[in-house]
Amino acid sequence: MTARVAILKKAIKAAENDRVAKSYPEGRLRISNTGSQKRYYHVISAEKPKGVFITKNDQSIARKLAEKDYNSRFLELATEELSRLERMIHIISEDNADMAFERMSPGRQELVRPYILTDEILINDWLGKSFKTNQFMPERKIYDTIKGEKVRSKSEALLANMFFEMKIPYRYECELRLKKGTVRYPDFTLLKIRTREEIYFEHFGLLDDENYLKSSIKKLDEYRENNIYPGKNLLFSYETEESPLDIKGIRKMVEDFFTRSSF
């Protein structure tokens, strides 16, 4: 509902701007259908209910009249829908099931595990779970992160530090079991707190290397076969010698993805 409210507000603002900026003609549009042929009429007064025929050279008038009618209808319905949604959101947020836990004293909260986990409990549970990590050539993990772990490249260190600073819980090279017994170790497994989803993040850092490129494509194919898709539950970054990691651009992408609701 919150996402729909945001969409409506943006659309209403655009419609209101159009009403001011566009010079809509007076009157309304009447359309007459004769077989497969449409005839447009400009109705200005009640004295001429059938209106004045709009020639092909004046089709812009028909278009503006249609836009005027749509603009008016849209603003009416969108405003009503927005009002209903805002009332519903207020009612829902006013007193919801989460309050049963939130209104307990800290001492009582320590003794109870809520049915709907708070963000804090969810994060602590997720980060506290042990997981199998990639044991392949651990000696290559030589780059330190703010979190105090070792990763395999400077770019991965930059990404790990970015997730840490953005307060996005993550696991580095956590085991992921796919169909047919295949095991992969995504560079990062992220927790999208808002939707309680795990999101996988891969960094492709050697795309200049042909064998690495083929391996990366194979990995993406495997992910797709396991319902892991870019933009849905998979994000990735890349670099080559000529195109280094764009950490600012990646941060913007991640911010947008993690503040967006899933539908």
Explain briefly what this protein structure is:
The chain is built from eight helices and eleven strands. The chain has helices at 2-21, 59-94, 99-102, 106-109, 119-128, 154-165, 210-225, 247-259; strands at 28-34, 37-43, 52-53, 143-144, 150-151, 170-172, 176-177, 183-184, 188-192, 197-204, 234-238.
Question: What layout of secondary structure does this protein have?
Answer:
Elements (H helix, E strand, L loop, with lengths): L1 H20 L6 E7 L2 E7 L8 E2 L5 H36 L4 H4 L3 H4 L9 H10 L14 E2 L5 E2 L2 H12 L4 E3 L3 E2 L5 E2 L3 E5 L4 E8 L5 H16 L8 E5 L8 H13 L4
Parallel strand pairs: 10-11
Antiparallel strand pairs: 1-2, 2-3, 4-5, 6-9, 7-8, 9-10
Helix pairs in contact: 1-2
Keywords:
Trna Endonuclease, Chain: A, domain 1; 263 residues; 11 strands; alpha+beta; elongated; four-stranded mixed sheet; three-stranded antiparallel sheet
What does this protein structure show overall?
The chain has 263 residues and is α+β, with helices and mostly antiparallel strands. A four-stranded mixed beta sheet has the order 6-9-10-11. A three-stranded antiparallel beta sheet has the order 1-2-3, with helices on one face. Strands 4-5 form a two-stranded antiparallel ribbon. The chain has helices at 2-21, 59-94, 99-102, 106-109, 119-128, 154-165, 210-225, 247-259; strands at residues 28-34, 37-43, 52-53, 143-144, 150-151, 170-172, 176-177, 183-184, 188-192, 197-204, 234-238. The protein has two domains: 2-94; 130-259, Trna Endonuclease, Chain: A, domain 1, CATH 3.40.1350.
